[in-house]
């Protein structure tokens, strides 16, 4: 009995030891992962394109600039410009500061006038500077190959003397036309009803016209008008020289102190059309023009329309009242004289004006 109980106890203890031993045994290896779920299929990648051909290298920026902006080149331009009337300081000193004069006699007011809002009056300026490079030339808009000198304006110009007229050469000569045009038309003088003569206000009779100032006339450079046949009391024709404009003759071939930025026509440039010419008196036409204009001036002195400075031999308008015919001759004289081309700018038109003046004065 006792023995049986002891045996049962021993067996129980042995089973417990075995169970404890089995609980401390290490885990076996992890089983394999299950299969992933299916995703949608990706598209097939496209084939890479071929590399493009390398572009051609551009010209070195300095090469483009140095077409014009070498020290030697700029010095040559400045040397020519020194011969130009545009470089004359006196034209700025006596007129450049006045509002009515400065748009053509100073760098500042010329540029201001190009950008001035309509109806805004010009103003006097204290320290005007002369016409210079920046008056005519603007900044480059780009620096690509084949760049040319940029201009401040090449737009057609509304005539000052007659707003119904457009001065247009279709090229850079339009820049010149801003200033080289009449400031007054003959209609201004025909509308004067009284004028002060010897301190006395005098009424202008019918059929007569007043010359009210020693500065009367187109004042003072009507070249754009004469080239286009505008501004005289007789409608003019367009001359052969009109097609080349101002720059074609005045900035052509450089020859010594003429041509280029001197703005003085060079004989070498004229020879392109007038081959064999040895001076500007081609076929004696300049001499003939000057002689006829001188005879008209003397007749206008007799009529009282002009005065003559005996020391210099120069003529100037005289304050007076003259007949319609005498005024027409006076106006055409001033128009031709102040053109300063000695008949070259528009020969057919000038021939008609000379004949008209001679007929009016009985020459």
Radius of gyration from the CA trace? 45 Å
Task: Count up the domains.
Answer: 2
Largest sheet: 2 strands, antiparallel
Distance between the termini: 181 Å
Strand content: 5-15%
Low-confidence stretches: none
Shape: elongated
> What class would the helix/strand composition place it in?
mainly alpha
- Average residue-wise pLDDT: 86
Number of helices: 15
Widest β-sheet, arrangement of strands: 1-2
Provide the succession of SSEs.
HHHHHHHEEHHEEEHHHHEEEHH
Topology, number of strands: 8
How helix-rich are the residues, as a percent range? 25-40%
InterPro entries: Cyt_c-like_dom, Cyt_c552, Multihaem_cyt_sf, Multiheme_Cytochr_ET
GO molecular function, one term: electron transfer activity
Pfam family, one: Cytochrom_C552
Protein name: Ammonia-forming cytochrome c nitrite reductase subunit c552
Quick take:
One of its GO terms (cellular component) is periplasmic space. This protein has 363 residues and is mainly alpha-helical. The protein has helices spanning 2-23, 61-65, 71-81, 89-93, 102-105, 107-115, 133-136, 173-177, 186-190, 223-227, 245-250, 267-270, 285-303, 324-339, 347-360, and strands spanning 157-158, 166-167, 194-197, 200-203, 208-211, 306-308, 315-317, 320-323.
Structural features, described:
With 363 residues, the protein is mainly alpha-helical. The chain has two domains: 62-147, no CATH class; 180-363, no CATH class. It is 37% helix and 7% strand. It contains 15 helices and eight strands. Strands 1-2 form a two-stranded antiparallel sheet. A two-stranded antiparallel ribbon has the order 3-4. Helix 13 (285-303) runs antiparallel to helix 14, helix 13 runs parallel beside helix 15 (347-360) and helix 14 runs antiparallel to helix 15 (347-360). The radius of gyration is 45 Å and the shape is elongated. The N and C termini lie far apart (181 Å).
